[in-house]
Write a structure and sequence with these properties.
One of its GO terms (molecular function) is amino-acid racemase activity. It comes from Candidatus Woesebacteria bacterium GW2011_GWB1_39_10. Helix 1 (24-38) packs across helix 12, helix 5 crosses helix 12 (236-248) and helix 8 (167-177) runs antiparallel to helix 10. The protein has helices spanning 24-38, 61-65, 73-85, 102-108, 116-127, 140-145, 147-153, 167-177, 183-186, 192-207, 218-225, 236-248, 270-276; strands at residues 14-18, 51-54, 90-93, 113-114, 133-138, 158-160, 212-216, 233-234, 256-257, 260-261. By secondary structure, it is an alpha/beta fold. The protein contains 13 helices and 10 strands. It is globular, with a radius of gyration of 19 Å. The protein has 2 domains: 12-114 and 236-273, Rossmann fold (3-Layer(aba) Sandwich), CATH 3.40.50; 116-235, Rossmann fold (3-Layer(aba) Sandwich).
Amino acid sequence: MKMNYFANKQKLLPGIYGGMGPLSHIKFEEHLLTACHQLNIQGDQNIPTWILFSGSSTPDRTKSIQQTGPISVSHLVYFTKQLESFGCDFVVIACNTAHHYFETIKKSLYIPIVSMIDETVKEITTNYKGVRKVGLMATNGTIESNLYQEAFAKIGVSVITPKIHDPIQKNIMRAIYDKDYGIKETGTRLDTKACKILLDGAYRLRHQGAEVIISGCTEISLAFERTNFDIPIIDPLKITAYKTIAVAMGIEKLPRTNLGEISSPNVLTQFSKIFRSDNSSHNLI
């Protein structure tokens, strides 16, 4: 008799690439569980299975983009292909700035990859209809990559961001990276100085006409969870987590790959076969 090792009604196995920064996938997994509750998935054994790879060794994405540090794209491709080799049916990268290399990563895979940028655009166009100006708080790398600017321009929505050399943006980068109070350093022990800096940045964008604000960095999302603000804060991690569960359970469709739309599970690898059936003749090599 074959045993199904997946959750009841689970259709696909997600692969999650986290560790950028160290808290990104921890917060992402919290959002995955929240999404399960939103979709009325109850009970431990009914929560879908996923595989998580914490690639904390991945070089800093902003420094890579600005060519002031090691290039990160080789790590991004390597770790996503590892998730593919483990039998995952699709991949999610829990980092905004890493999406600068999205097309390169996508071309290296046979399985689909979910775009955090695209899902955020869909969220705003679906649930915040009429919004014409979106504020973006993010790393220099995300801002300079024009990831959100180009995506929103396609639907006629403008994106307001601080200029890279603006004191506000320099302070935002310090709130993320500073060795004493930056959120990458303090982790869940959020420093009030970092939170105040980010709140000041949000007020600046609101005064410039932003109707909603995207927290385009995991560390910024952490700070805004503990801060009250008077216009909506859109969290791409939370949005992408919901998409991950919805796809895993067959509620929503996968994005297309370079090979076309894939709707059936990836059963090409030994790991996937072992996960999907109880067969002692299989061996992991």
